[in-house]
C-alpha cells in the first residue's frame, strides 16, 4: 500500500465544501453523555481549524457505537458536538437526521468558515454496508472528501471509503501523521527496529507477528500471549492464559524467527497468583516453570531488565499490548517499565498503537515522551500486518 497520500495542504480548499470524516466515537456515559476521554476529538482539531482558516465550509461526519441502523439516544453524537463546540469556540450545529431534509438544507446553507455535524451515520444501515447510493448521496453534499478518522481506516464503509468514488479524496493531518510514523516504521525504519507485542490473545496478533518477522530486528513478546509461546517451547504455565489452537503457530514463529535471524525475546520470570484478583497474593517463578495452581499476571524483574536492555539500543520501537494485567496496579509493573524504557529513549522513534497499550501508557504519565501514539486500535494492528486499509487506499496518491 502506498502511504504517500495527498493531504489538505496539497489542494485548494478555499470556498469549497469539505466532507470531513472524523472519529468522534469517544468513550462516554450512556445516560449523561459525559465524555471520559476526548483524545479522538482533540486529535482532529488541527484539520478542522486549518480548513476553516483557509475558507472552507466543513461538514463533519462520524459514527458513535454500533446502533446498526436503529436510532438510539445513547448513540447520538450530541455530547461530542457539545464538547467540540467548547474546543473550537464556535457554534457547531448538528443535523436532526442522516441525509434527510434537515441534513440537505443545513449543508446547502453552510458558508465558508462554518462547521456542521451530521448525526451518527450508523443510524442508517447503508453506512456500514457501504451502499453506493448512500455514498453518492453523502458525496453530493460536498466538493472534496477529507479522511481524518484513522481509527476507522480498516472499515470499508460509505463514509470512510465509498464517498471517495464520487469526490476527490485527501488525508487530514491526523491521518497524515499516522501514515508518516507508521508507514516509515514499516518501510524504512531507523534500525534496529524493536517490536513489542503483548495483550491477551495470540489470535489477534498472528498477522502482526508474521508481518513483523519480515521487518523487525527484535520481537519482544509479553503479556497473556507469551504463555502460549512458553508451552510451544515445552514450558509449564499452570493456569495462565493459553491459546491452545495456536501452540503450533507459536512454535512455527519461533522457528521462523531463528531462520530469519530475528531476535525473539520471551519472559524469563513471571509474577504469579492463585486467583485473578487485584489484591491476590503474588510470588515470582521462572516463566517456563509456573506451578500447576498458579497463573501468570505480569512479567518479573529479570524480564523487565531483559526487555529494557533490548529497548535501550533501538532506533525504532513499535509497541502494541500490555505486558501484564495492568488494570490491577499490583500487576502493572512490567507494562509501566516498558513505557518508561520507551520514554527514556533519546534518539529513537517510539510508536504505541492499540487501545489498551495507549491507556496503559497514559496511566504511566509517559505519553508526552512517546513520538507517536496511534489513534487506531484495530486499524493500527491491520496497518502493522501490512493489510490494505480501505480508508487509506481510497485517498489520492501524492
Ligand atoms: P489486547 O486487547 O489483546 O491487547 O489485551 C489486553 C488485555 O490483556 C488487558 O486487558 C490485560 O489485562 C490482558 N493481559 C495482559 N497480560 C495478561 C496476563 N498475563 N493474563 C491475563 N490477561 C492479561
| N-to-C series of helices and strands | EHEHHEHHEEHEHEHEHEEEEEHEHEHEHH
**Strands in their spatial order, largest beta sheet:** 9-7-6-14-15-16
Distance between the termini: 13 Å
What fraction of the residues are assigned to beta strands by DSSP? 15-25%
Question: Structural class of the secondary elements?
Answer: alpha/beta
Net shape: elongated
Largest sheet data: 6 strands, parallel
Number of helices: 14
Bound molecules: adenosine monophosphate
Mean pLDDT: 95
Number of strands: 16
Helix content: 25-40%
Structure characterization notes:
- This protein has 398 residues and is of the alpha/beta class.
- Helix content is 35%, strand content 16%.
- Strands 9-7-6-14-15-16 form a six-stranded parallel β-sheet, sandwiched between helices. A five-stranded parallel β-sheet has the order 3-2-1-4-5.
- Strand 15, helix 12 and strand 16 form a beta-alpha-beta unit.
- Helix 7 runs parallel beside helix 9 and helix 8 packs across helix 9.
- It binds adenosine monophosphate (AMP).
- Adenosine monophosphate binds next to strand 13.
What's this model, at a glance?
The protein is an alpha/beta fold and 398 residues long.
Topology (elements, then pairings):
Elements: E1 17-21, H1 39-53, E2 57-61, H2 78-88, H3 101-109, E3 115-117, H4 125-129, H5 132-139, E4 144-147, E5 169-171, H6 173-187, E6 193-197, H7 202-213, E7 218-221, H8 226-232, E8 236-237, H9 247-260, E9 263-265, E10 269-273, E11 282-286, E12 289-290, E13 295-299, H10 301-312, E14 316-320, H11 333-343, E15 349-352, H12 355-364, E16 372-373, H13 378-384, H14 390-393
Parallel strand pairs: 1-2, 1-4, 2-3, 4-5, 6-7, 6-14, 7-9, 8-12, 14-15, 15-16
Antiparallel strand pairs: 10-11, 10-13
Helix pairs in contact: 1-2, 7-9, 8-9, 10-11, 11-12
Amino acid at each position: 500500500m502506498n502511504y504517500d497520500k495527498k493531504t489538505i495542504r496539497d489542494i485548494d480548499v478555499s470556498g469549497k465544501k469539505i466532507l470531513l470524516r472524523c472519529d468522534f466515537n469517544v468513550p462516554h456515559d450512556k445516560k449523561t453523555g459525559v465524555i471520559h476521554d476526548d483524545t479522538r476529538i482533540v486529535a482532529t482539531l488541527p484539520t478542522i481549524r486549518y480548513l476553516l482558516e483557509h475558507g472552507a465550509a466543513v461538514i463533519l461526519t462520524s459514527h458513535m457505537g454500533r446502533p446498526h441502523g436503529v436510532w438510539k439516544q445513547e448513540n447520538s453524537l450530541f455530547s461530542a458536538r457539545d464538547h467540540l463546540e467548547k474546543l473550537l469556540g464556535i457554534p457547531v450545529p448538528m443535523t436532526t437526521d442522516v441525509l434527510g431534509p434537515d441534513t440537505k438544507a443545513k449543508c446547502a446553507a453552510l458558508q465558508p468558515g462554518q462547521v456542521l455535524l451530521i448525526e451518527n451515520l450508523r443510524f442508517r444501515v447503508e453506512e456500514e454496508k457501504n451502499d453506493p447510493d448512500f455514498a453518492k448521496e453523502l458525496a453530493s453534499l460536498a466538493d472534496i472528501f477529507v479522511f481524518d478518522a484513522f481509527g476507522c481506516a480498516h472499515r470499508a464503509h460509505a463514509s470512510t471509503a465509498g464517498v471517495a468514488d464520487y469526490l476527490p479524496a485527501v488525508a487530514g493531518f491526523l491521518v497524515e501523521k499516522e501514515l508518516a510514523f507508521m508507514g516509515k516504521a514499516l518501510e524504512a525504519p531507523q534500525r534496529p527496529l524493536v517490536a513489542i507485542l503483548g495483550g491477551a490473545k495470540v489470535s489477534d496478533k498472528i498477522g502482526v507477528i508474521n508481518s513483523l518477522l519480515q521487518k523487525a530486528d527484535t520481537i519482544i513478546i509479553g503479556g497473556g500471549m507469551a504463555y502460549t509461546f512458553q508451552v510451544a517451547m515445552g514450558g509449564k504455565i499452570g493456569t495462565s492464559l493459553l491459546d491452545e489452537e495456536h501452540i503450533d503457530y507459536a512454535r512455527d514463529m519461533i522457528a521462523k524467527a531463528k531462520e530469519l535471524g530475528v531476535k525473539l525475546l520471551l519472559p524469563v520470570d513471571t509474577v504469579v497468583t492463585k486467583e485473578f484478583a487485584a489484591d491476590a497474593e503474588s510470588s515470582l517463578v521462572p516463566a517456563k516453570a509456573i506451578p500447576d495452581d498458579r497463573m501468570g499476571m505480569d512479567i518479573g524483574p529479570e524480564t523487565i531488565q531483559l526487555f529494557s536492555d533490548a529497548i535501550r539500543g533501538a532506533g525504532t520501537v513499535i509497541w502494541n499490548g500490555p505486558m501484564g494485567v495492568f488494570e490491577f496496579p499490583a500487576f502493572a509493573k512490567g507494562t509501566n517499565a516498558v513505557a518508561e524504557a520507551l520514554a527514556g529513549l533519546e534518539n529513537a522513534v517510539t510508536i504505541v498503537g492499540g487501545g489498551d497499550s495507549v491507556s496503559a501508557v497514559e496511566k504511566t504519565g509517559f505519553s508526552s515522551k512517546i513520538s507517536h501514539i496511534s489513534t487506531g486500535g484495530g486499524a493500527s494492528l491491520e496497518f502493522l500486518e501490512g493489510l490494505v486499509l480501505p480508508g487509506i487506499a481510497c485517498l489520492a496518491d501524492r
